[in-house]
Amino acid sequence: MEDLLIKVEQALDNIRPYLVADGGNVRVLGITDDHVVRLEFIGSCGSCPMSSMTFKAGLEEAILKNVPEIKSVEAVNVAVDTY
What we know:
With 83 residues, the chain is an alpha+beta fold. Helix content is 41%, strand content 24%.
């Protein structure tokens, strides 16, 4: 499971500079036995109304594309879009 965590962190490292530039980041809370990654937005990303788009188009896509062993990605604190 540690191998998967390293691969997930590497995939996220491609996205992190953009999150950090906006005052936020993302933390991997863990990977379940059935290969589901659990993420938490931190900093300004935790309350950003665009976090659901960032999650789907950025983080989830990067992980699933770069770590095919992962079945799905969940974020525990994605803000709800108000649009």
